[in-house]
Each structure stands twice: as structure tokens, then as C-alpha cells.
Amino acid sequence: MIHSIKNLISTTAIFAIFVLAILAAGCGSPEPSPGGPPRFASYRDVPGVTNDEIAAIERLKELKDEFVYGMIPSTELFTDCESGEVGGYATMFSGWLTDLFGITFKPVIREWAGLIEGLEGGSVHFTGDITPTDERHAMHFMTDPIAQRPFRYFLLAGAPHPQEIAKTRVPRLGFFDGAAAYSYAFSSQAYDTLQAVSVASTAEGYELLKNGEVDALLEESVIEAAFDAYGDMVVSADFFPYIYNPVSMTAFDPELAPVISVVHKALRNGGAKYVAELYKRGEWDYKKHKLCMVLTEEENAYIRGSDTIPFASEHYNYPISFYNKYEKAWQGIIVDLLADMTELTGLNFRRVNNRYAEWPELFRLIESGEAFLIAELIPTDARKEIGFLWPEVPTMVDNYALLSKSEFPNVTLKGILDVRVGLPRGTAYSEMFRHWFPNHPHTVEYQSSDETFAAMERGEIDMVISSQRRLLAITNYHEYPGYKANYLFDHSAESYIGFNKDHAILASIFSKALHTIDVKGISQQWAHRTYDYKGKIAHAQRPWLIGVSVILTCVLILFIMIKRSEKKRLEILVHKRTAEAEAANRAKSAFLAGMSHEIRTPLNAIIGMTTIGKDAKNVERKDLALSRIEGASVHLLGIINDVLDMSKIEADKLELSPVQYNFEKMLAKVTDIIRFRVDEKRQKLSVSVDDNIPRLLVGDDQRLAQVIMNLLSNAVKFTPEEGDIQLAVSLLGESNGICELRVDVVDSGIGISPEQQTRLFSAFKQAESGTSRKFGGTGLGLAISKRIVELMDGEIGIESELGKGARFFFNVKTQKGADRRDDKPQDENGNEQDRGTNMFAGKHILLVEDVEVNREIIIMLLEDSGLIIDHAENGKAALDMTAANLDKYDAIFMDVQMPLMDGFEATRQIRALPALSNRTRKLPIIAMTANVFKEDIEACLASGMDDHIGKPIDVNDLIGKLRKYL
Asked: pLDDT for 31-50, tens place per residue?
């Protein structure tokens, strides 16, 4: 064993030395060539494409002239300022798809609602605007991500960064409604705490920024295009830690699935790198567009008519501008900035000085106009008097410093008067030093910066006035050791490109373009760049690193052998934890898949029957289609209510709403609804009701009906065709007006095992994993029923054996009602809801609703009531119409979520109208909204509304509210 270990250690050591030697010699694979598309002559050549996919795509190409690729307006797709055509990354991606498939992919701009509507209706075939999730993958057809969108802050120009604000107070961040940025901000742990402000639109976000109600907005970088209308008032800033939101190419139509599959395979076989390169080009397209939007016609004319622009540049001014003698090329920040400027504007630049020109000659070139601009010209009073011009954005921000040899003692501010200081002639550094120390007795002036440092090397002077970045040039680029920043002045030295006084238009173009270029990123890249210095250190350390690597390799091998048993134990533990996590994920996936099926099934019925009804030629067929639509809609609403009820239960917010109701009529309504499903399966339903049960009860009849409906639905679902189902309701007893009811639902179905019964009333779980696939259902009904029964001071249970059916039973306590013997429908206050013609004749109401189809539904439901109905599309219009005639309306039905002004604010302002108090009776305002949680209703009442009615609208409930207030 020992011999084997020795051989293993020796072999490993030799291998490690061999690998390190190769790395040290600089061997490696060549860099991949960037930019070119993957080498597919057509989609047929993409690895993994099947014959079925090829056949399906060719059929599509025969049926369609083009594919529409829809995107919301953003930095990825926009209407180009100059050409008026769409531009950006999405156009380039569409071009690649066009070449790949041999059919045009046409990029079009759609707002979000129109985009989704187009995808669902078929007028839009594909989009690149949807984030992939497990749920969306289950519903749609999606590729790997085609873009990674980083999150950025959007704030007013000059405002402090939110993470700086967080050091002194809680920052206020705006988040767009429904966007992912909110959850990302919290999951990133960038802040201990923050104040989140909901934002509905870009315009609202800008107003909040301008009014100081938020410090910044957090959203994907692509939303930058939405702020272009505000010029340079809004800027973006980095969000740390760096996170991004991926988006995929997506289709809703199953016929387009082969296209998505082929693109997915292309991305995984070289296409992803090419798409990333397209995204970079698209970003440049947007930058050009953004600059075009802010340029004046005079500036655009200058660009169109401009020849090559002469400029001057220092050969020694690292990292702003310098001639690299090792690589024999001009380099520095100015080189990169001018390259970006050419890319943005098309302007070309030509250096007019040679690589030996010193500062006096360069200054003469810019002053005379032989050079239109110079790489660096620090603003001073004297230069401003000459008339030089500068852009708004500095090239680099630095600090003035006195540089000395490392061994020279550190000086104080007062001690500077006692040392010899070298001044490079004609520079801003010299001018600033003389301004600070006008009577310094030991200054020496030299022709250039290089000569000044050479004099310090010879010992003629002790220090040189310069900046921190000059120290970088000495120690990093020139690799001269032994220098330091002896005294750092608390005064920033901002470096600017300088312009001749006669070139104001060019300076203005640069000002605007530099806001678009990442100047800070370029300057930081150069400030932190290294050359051969660290390489030499690494070369000197290489033998030591090899020795340490060999020793560490041997120690690692021995450590692995010693810890083998521990590792085995950990592997078992990890395997167990992994299995548990996978089981949890499977349960979640099964629930989501079931929910997808449950929701899509009634939606399919609604859509299909709508088509049949529209094409039907006779009334009977239309009525049948409408009946099926109504049934599917009720089923879909039940699923949605189950999910909402479960969320209330988990938040401990499920509450009862007691009213007086007719027990027999409630039970009859339940059995009428379920009998349709019973008849479909040719089952027998028998109902037995105890005659001693009071006719009128007080309680939450809707929740009680929900429990009975859940149990009956399960009985129908799990009972075979022609099976038996029994519903029995009995009175267990009555005491002090409190009745205890017992409800039994018995079926001859498949039965439930004792082990399955233990998890039957748990949320998101059914008796077995295959239940939802075989029988359907959300798995929430029994959990919800259990909670409702408990709220009614009762218990629910089951008795069952596999193959012998099941008996579900529960008991609840409810109050006996007043014995009233009328049979007409009643509202919550006992008022008859007679829906006769002209029952509200002459009454005038205002319907405030921004969705046109919702307005049409209300108006059609009430067309025989005699009501006079005006309508407003938002809260602002409602306020204006009410203020114009305070006595006109007998009631207002108010939606809550609307553009321009929501229902809450509209209600508050209507209640605040000074003349409203002169009305003979209060103007009732009733909320009409899909927000039906208790806190939603309380918010409506708190804003000044009198009542609430939930969507979808129940016509009896609507009539009841009208009778109550009219």
C-alpha cells in the first residue's frame, strides 16, 4: 500500500511539473475568432435538426410570406432617429434568422399588451422580450437566453448614487408594476432596508424623480430608451452586485415549435457567441440613435460636411495619451475615445504632431488652430481668457501631487517651502503650483515633463509637481521602481479634451457624445492596466510556484486518502438532501403542470365555443355555445378562487361574511350546478335534507356552498360512469338559536387508502402523484374546505377503503335566521332584487372604467333598468364630469386601477369638492374592482367610497347595490 502511494505521489508530481511547464511556456489554444456567424449554410445544417422539423418548417414557409418578430420599444428595438427605420439588436437578430431559415423575419415594435395579444392571436409569431421560467416553458416554446439584460439605476443627472444614500438614510427606490426588479433587489442583499415605491409608467417614474419622491428607479437596462424623451435629465448608474435578467426567443403557437427548436440547437452549437456579438453591435446602434436625438441640425450638418479633423496628443502623458515605444503605437484613453467617437458619428481624426513633440509645441498647435482639439487641456483661468473650449464630461479625474523618490522624507504642507520643486513649463500643474505657492523660493522650470523627472533622477530637484496618474506612468508603464506620491493635494485635477476657440460646434458634439460613451469605464481600464512588470515578478517566482504546487498536490492526495471515509459519509448525506430537494421540486412541478392543465382546459372550451357560437347559423346552436362558455367560465373562476383562497389561508386572512340566506335554495343551486357533470357520466345523485333544518339561516352561504361543491365535485370525479353519489344534510341539534348541521357526501368511487388519507387535506397534495394527470384538479379544494369548516366551528373527516368508495363528512355551526316566507331574490339587506323593466327609470349614474369591454358589459346588463348611464375612462375624467354638475348623478360606480388618476385619488378629490356638501343627499360611490381581498375593500372604504362590488360582476349583486343606494 505504501509503495502504491509513493508511486502515485511521484506520478502526480511529474504530471504537475509538466503541466506547469507548459503553462509557463505560454502554450495554449488560440483565441477564437470573434464576430462571424456560426457556419450553417441553412437551418438544415444545424446539428441535431430532425427530418420532422425540416418538413414542418418547409410547410410553414409555404403558408407564410414572413414571420413577425415583435418587441416592446427599448434599446433593443427602436425607430432610428436618422433613417426612420427600426434599428437595434432585434433587427440584427432577425437578419440572422432570415439568413438561417430563408424566410423574412420582420421586426416590429409593439407595446406590451399588444405584443401579448399579437402572440396569442397570431399576428405576432415570435418575440425576444420574455424571461424564461419553468411555468412559461410549460406553456410556451422558448430557446436558451438570447440576451442578458443587466439591471441599472435611473436617476436625475447629478443625483447621488442610491448605495451612497444608503450610508446615511433609507433609500427610496421606484419599481415598475409587475417587473422582476423588485425581487432581484431584495434577493441581491444590496441593501439592509429600502423604501419601495410602485411605479406604473415611465412618465410617472420621471415625475417621482423630479419631485424627489424616489431617489432612483431600478429596472432592466433596455428601458433606457423610454427616458430619451427627457434629454440628459435622466442618467443611468450601475447596480451592484451585478445581476441580469435573461430573455428567450419565444412563440405561443404550437405550429412554430420547430422553429424555436432549431434556433435553440443553433444557439448551443456556436450561435450563442455570435448572438452575443450582435448584442454588442446593437448597443452601438442605440448609442448612435441616442446621440442623433440630441444633436442639432447645425451639428448634424457639421458631421456631414466634415473632413478629417486634426488633433494634437502628448507622447508621454500616460494613461491619457502616450506613444508605446515597446509596441510602437499610440495608445491611451484618447485613442479609445476617438475610436468610439468615429463609431458614433462617422467623424475621422488625424494626429498632426510627431511622437517627439513636447508640450510647448502641442500648446502652439491647439492655440493656432492647426489642431482643432488636444488630448488633454486642463482648464485654468488663463486658458479660459484665451478662449479655449471644453466638453462637459472630463476624460479622467485625478489629484494633484508632489512626486519624489521613495527614500525622500515625507513633507508637510509647510515643509513644501523648504524643498526644491521642478515645474514642467507651460502646464496646468505649474500654473496651479505657482497659484498655491506664489513666493516659493526653490522652484526650477524645465522644458518638458520628462526633463523634469530626469532632473529629479540627477538630484537637481527633490520633487516634481504632477498628479497621481503620473506615478502610474513611472512605476507601471515605464517600470521604474523607487517613486512615491510624497504629498497629495486635496484638490482634484480633472482632465478634459481641449478645443480651439473657433470650434464650438465640434466641442458641443463631443459634449453630447461623451455622455453616451463609457468614458469612466475606459479611463478606469487604462488606469488599472499592467504591462511587463508583474510578468517579470511572476517569471522570477515561477520555480517557487512549481515547487509549492508539487507539495500541495502531494498533500492533497494524502488528504483525500485519509478523508476517504469522511467523504463517503458526506456523499450519502448529500445524496439524501438532493433526493429530498428533487422530491420537493417534483411536487412543485407537478402542481404547476396540473394548474396549467386546469386553467388551459376551460380556456380552450371558452375559445373554441366562442368560435362555434360566432359561426352558428341558428339560435339553438348559439345558446348551446353560450351555455358551454358560461360553464367553462364558472369552472375557470373556481380554479382562480381556489388559488386566491389558498393564498389567503397561508396568510391567515381567510374570513367569513355572514348574511341571512335560504338554505334550501343554496343547496338547490349547488346541486343544479353539479348535476350537469353527473349527467355527463350517467351517474345517480340522490339528495336527502332533514325537514327540521330551519328554512332561513345566518352565515356565509357562499363558503358553505363552496365546501359542499368541493366534496360533490370530488365524488363525481372519482366515481366511475353509472356510479352512485349521495348527499345527506341533517340537523344534529339546536341550542340558543345556534344550529349544528351535518353534511355527508358518499360515493361508490375508487376509494382512498389509509396512508393517502393522512395527506388528503394538505395544500398542493393529492392522494397520489398521478391523480391530477388522470382526474384533473388543483389539489387545493380539500385544504380550503378544511379551513372553511374550522372557521364555522366545525370538523371535516373521511371514511374510506380502496375500491369501496368514500364518505366525506363535516359538521358546522350556524345561526337560525328570521322566518320570512317570500321567495323573491334578496340582497344583503333583505331587499327584493326585482329585475323588472325600468325599475330605476330616471336615475342617472356615472360608470368610471378604463376597459371598454367592461363598460359594455355593465351597460348591456342594465339596458332594461331605465338607468341613464354616462361613462368616464379614468379618474380625472370622472372628477371633471362630477365637478361640472354636482347634482347630476345619483351614484358613481368607480374602478380602482386606471391611468392618469386611479379610483382612490378620484374618490378623495370628489369628496373634497367644496360644493358637494350642498347636495340634498350624499353622493354614493361604489367600488367596482377585481381586487376582492379584505384589505382591498378596506382601502376602498378608507378613500371615501361607500361600498364594494367584485369582478366578475354578479348581476343580482349589482341590482342589490342599485336598490340599496337609489
From this structure: 334 456 777 889 999 999 99
Give DSSP secondary structure letters for 880-934: HHHHH-TTS-SEEEE-SS-SSS-HHHHHHHHHT-GGGGGSSS---EEEEES--SH
Report the distance separating Cα 589 and Cα 571, nearest Å. 26
Between CA 467 and CA 537 the distance in angstroms is 26
**Which region, left, alpha or beta, applies to residue 736 given φ > 0 means left and ψ of -120 to 50 means alpha?**
left
**Do residues 827 and 963 make contact, with C-beta atoms less than 8 angstroms apart?**
yes
475 closest CA partner among 406, 425, 408? 406
This model's pTM is above 0.90: no
How many helices (H) and strands (E) in the chain? 32, 35
Q: Which residues pair with 816 in a beta bridge?
A: 697
175 CB-near residues (< 8 Å, 6+ apart): 181, 182, 185, 196, 197, 198, 199, 217, 218, 219
Query: Which cell is 523 given?
Result: 479611463
In whole angstroms, what is the distance from residue 586 CA to residue 476 CA?
56
pLDDT score for 511: 93
Phi/psi-derived region of residue 387, left when phi > 0, alpha when psi is between -120 and 50, beta in every other case: left
3-state secondary structure 263-332: HHHHHHHHHHHHHHHHHHHHHHHHHHHHHHHHCCHHHHHHHHHCCCEEEECCCEECCCEEEECCCCEEEC
Looking at residue 782, its pLDDT comes to 86
Q: Are 107 and 90 in contact (CB under 8 A)?
A: yes
Vertex 605, ends 599 and 610: CA angle to 5°? 125
- Whole-angstrom CA distances from 339 to 283, 353, 395, 614 are 16, 18, 14, 62
The span from the CA of 230 to the CA of 220, in Å, is 18
Q: How many CA atoms lie within 13 A of 374 on its CB side?
A: 30
Largest CA distance in the chain: 118
Quote the CA–CA distance of 688 and 225 in Å, as a whole number: 67
Burial (CB count <10 Å: 0-12, 13-18, 19+), residue 254: exposed
Residue 35 pLDDT:
52
Instruction: Return the H-helix or E-strand segment holding 735.
Output: strand 724-735
Extended beta strands in 476-634, E state: 483-495, 498-499
| CA gap 504, 484 in Å, rounded | 39
**pLDDT score, position 96:** 96
**What SS3 class is residue 247?**
strand
Instruction: Report residue 487 CA to chain centroid gap.
Output: 48
The DSSP string of 530-561 is --SHHHHHHHHHHHHHHHHHHHHHHHHHHHHH
- Summarize the confidence of residues 889-911 as an average pLDDT: 93
Per-residue pLDDT tens digits for 436-477? 999 999 999 998 888 998 999 999 999 999 887 778 777 777
Between strands 844-848 and 104-109, the pairing is unpaired
The distance in angstroms from the start CA to the end CA of the chain is 98
pLDDT grade for 754, boundaries at 50, 70 and 90: confident
Residue 104 confidence (pLDDT): 97
What domains does the chain contain, in order, with CATH numbers?
43-294 (3.40.190.10), 396-495 (3.40.190.10), 656-816 (3.30.565.10), 844-965 (3.40.50.2300)
Inter-residue contact 494 to 397 (CB < 8 Å) = yes
Closest listed residue to residue 282, CA positions, set 451, 583, 38, 74: 74
Cβ neighbours of 331 (radius 10 Å): 17
Q: CB atoms < 10 A from the CB of 965, how many?
A: 19
Q: Is 411 helix (H, G, I), strand (E, B) or coil?
A: coil
Residue 898 CB contacts under 8 Å (≥ 6 apart), including other chains? 848, 849, 850, 873, 874, 875, 906
CA angle, 812 as apex, 810 and 816 as ends, to 5°?
Answer: 145
C-alpha cell at 142: 422558448
